[in-house]
Amino acid sequence: MSLIKEIDYGTPVSRSEKMVTLTIDGNQVTVPEGTSIMRASMEAGIAIPKLCATDMVDAFGSCRLCLVEIEGRNGTPSSCTTPVMEGQVVHTQTGRLKSLRKGVMELYISDHPLDCLTCAANGDCELQDMAGAVGLRDVRYGQDGLNHVFKQGRNDGALNAKWMPKDESNPYFTYDPSKCIVCSRCVRACEEVQGTFALTIEGRGFNSRVSPGMHESFLGSECVSCGACVQACPTATLMEKSVIEIGQPEHSKVTTCAYCGVGCSFKAEMRGEELVRMVPYKDGKANRGHSCVKGRFAYGYAHHKDRILKPMIREKITDPWREVSWEEAYGRVASEFKRLQTQYGRNSIGGITSSRCTNEETFLVQKLIRAGFGNNNVDTCARVCHSPTGYGLNQTFGTSAGTQDFDSVEHTDVVMVIGANPTDGHPVFGSRLRKRLRQGAKLIVIDPRRIDLVRSPHIEAAHHLALRPGTNVAIMTALAHVIVTEGLQDDAFIRERCENEEFRDWVEFVSQPQYSPEAVELLTGVPAQEVRGAARLFATGGNGAIYYGLGVTEHSQGSTTVMAIANLAMVTGNIGRKGVGVNPLRGQNNVQGSCDMGSFPHELPGYRHISDPATREIYENIWGVILQDEPGLRIPNMLDAAVEGTFKGIYIQGEDILQSDPDTRHVAAGLEAMECVVVQDLFLNETANFAHVFLPGSTFLEKDGTFTNAERRINRVRKVMTPTNGYADWEVTQNLARAMGLNWNYTHPSQIMDEIAMTTPTFANVSYELLEREGSVQWPCNAKAPLGTPVMHIDHFVRGKGKFMRTEYVATDERSGPRFPLLLTTGRILSQYNVGAQTRRTENVAWHAEDRLEIHPHDAEVRGLRDGDWVKITSRAGETTLRALVTDRVTTGVVYTTFHHPTTQANVVTTDFSDWATNCPEYKVTAVQISASNGPTQWQQEYREHSEASRLIKTALDTVS
């Protein structure tokens, strides 16, 4: 194994289709018009020395090291800022150029510490490399480092020059100003790639240096620790602390991030089996070489002391855990599940697949339940997040996934973001979106909260529709009303691509006066003129793309809103080409894949209904079993049945339903009523408080497989280290299946993917060989699309013609009133992920150590609350306490919190109301009251005591004593 070296071409690629031919050092080169001479030279295999240039950012031309000579042109222009021209003759290495470059390098080196032998960047320093490339062997100038010192007075009045101190405030990287060459690469990466604008060049002349703000530390600044500046830095000025501690990596593998649904590709750079750093992979088609703080740095949980590495069992949930062998654990699960089915019936047990595990592992869990348990009682976390996406898009378009790839955003003219916060929940895509907005695309935000996209550096939304929580359907139908009644629809698209009878019926529906913006304003609180302006902009502004998240789906009318979004895309003709489409932003890394793999009780892999005999026959012939033809239980149904006494056992792989699912008391009651709860995870999570068997899980670093991201992209996950617990998750499931009598003999996840491809039409052409060759593909990937499908519904919809659906607004039963006058909505924050089991066990807690309740200053003042006060939040379901954050990001009457910390238990207050079609919980609308508090609630105290007792482990030494 070796370190994967990526070529840096110096400047970004040109998208021009016109080609230009020139001669560089006697070699003819043909490149797209607009390409820089530097990049053209690099593509010809001729490396021009450079320091300020990198293909991550636009050309800058400050270092003066990449000078070239062009026949017929005076001077020595910089190759990074000079575009190619037809017939150009370029020389990159002449006596004059050599002399100039040596002179430039002498100036750099004269003002730079020469501690190369002990520098953390030794062997990976571009300044060091370029000194060698230009042949610099000695320096004529004194090395005083004037721009990197501070002056400290002495008693005798003399000045003592010392190096400026390092800034080590950031938990993941250091800033050493003594090494800075003021190339501005970090500043430009922060601006152009990340879009945060947190860095600047401070001072003048020899006093110039990079600064994170006005005398702020990196941790105290607006820096979001995405790592773009560290990646761009050519010296050790910005350096990962892990590299300083461990040393330079010596081999690497490309794998896929296991956090959000963007699916970023990374190089895991290693020394032996120790991970040195994660570097975003430039050829990753989802992230294009960018990253966020979670994927780039927050991998330390993999070796956290809390990780459980041995199987454990206990008789009762009040007993301490007892470590056992894998064989004993498998035997206990198999015997208990068989006993329960004998005693209570075949349908008395079931399972939940993981959206954090691979496609292959998820496929095996649903196969175990269907072929081993003999029922369809299988569900996944998509039930509580994006199940309305599957239903709504299937009804309108005929398929249950987003329509575009992430590159499509580069071609959009109008972006509508509804119920999503991309800069926090999907930050790498959020950065790409912000870049497009800075280039001139218009933005419509539909959200009760002022998310960062509404107003941030160089970006301001054209319209922010700050609607009342629970009124999504009303606002979307009002937008459609404007488009139809003002004649702004795309008649040609509708006539050719959509079912006309349904369209006429839908037009009659949305044209009714009660759906006008003026009438809907009473429900939503959004001024009618804002709704009309947004509708006109989306319908007439060019390519229109809709991106939505859990603020759409986690409602009692989640499926209806998804259909309304699809209607809006169809009526404006914004489907089937680049720059448009309906794009659900998936929350977890493989939530799309877990749905694809048949994790719902009514569907087999590929979204085919369990009642279809032909589909069942495919699996029955391969698996050698007869499958049930009726859908099984959803997660809420399993819990209800458990409380009723008919559902007795569950196998939960990599999900924490106690913390993530609604109405925590009901979830706890359901789990407590079961006789055998099996949890497979990295840590003793909150659900494990009620478990009888714990099977240690493996991290994404310890397994092979695939993830499918929000754009349907199937990405390889590659094993970079031996599983600390001994087994990858797919091996644990296979061994459990064997214990239950199934003859499974997979030796590698590629064989599982072969079975998926053999049985699932949308994956028919997918194989590990294809993924190795292409890097990644987007399903459908089959005979019709052998290399995948970046954009769906190009000529026709999957269902044939698009179907407009009536979207009648039905107010949720969860309403505010005198007892509960405020509406609570929930969401995520950049530094934390989902229930926080991973990120809370990393240094990311430096940014978000607790959940806070955002409350408007008016609502806080009425209740006598100040910023930082402890407050009690009470709903019809329960109560909890947390600290207040007084802010005008939320409107009056609305409060907001995150759900990353179990001590908060935000879902204690969420109700059991859910989407009418899919049972997706209504997390986003909970009527609450807020009051001052002087301590935890009784529920929190009882929960903390139970949680601590449930984590007691009796070791072998305890047993002997």
Automatic annotation (TrEMBL):
Q: Is Metal-binding there in the keyword field?
A: yes
Record has Metal-binding as a keyword: yes
Q: Which UniProt keywords apply?
A: 2Fe-2S, 4Fe-4S, Iron, Iron-sulfur, Metal-binding, Oxidoreductase, Repeat
Q: What class of enzyme is it?
A: oxidoreductase
4Fe-4S Mo/W bis-MGD-type domain residues are: 250-306
- Its EC number is 1.17.1.9
Question: Where is the 4Fe-4S ferredoxin-type domain positioned along the sequence?
Answer: 171-202, 214-243
Which Gene Ontology terms cover its molecular function?
formate dehydrogenase (NAD+) activity
Q: Where is the signal peptide?
A: none
One protein family per Pfam: Fer4_7
Q: Where does the 4Fe-4S His(Cys)3-ligated-type domain start and stop, copy by copy?
A: 96-135
Name of the protein described by the UniProt record: Formate dehydrogenase subunit alpha
Q: What does UniProt list as this organism's lineage?
A: Bacteria, Pseudomonadati, Pseudomonadota, Alphaproteobacteria, Hyphomicrobiales
Record gene name: fdhF
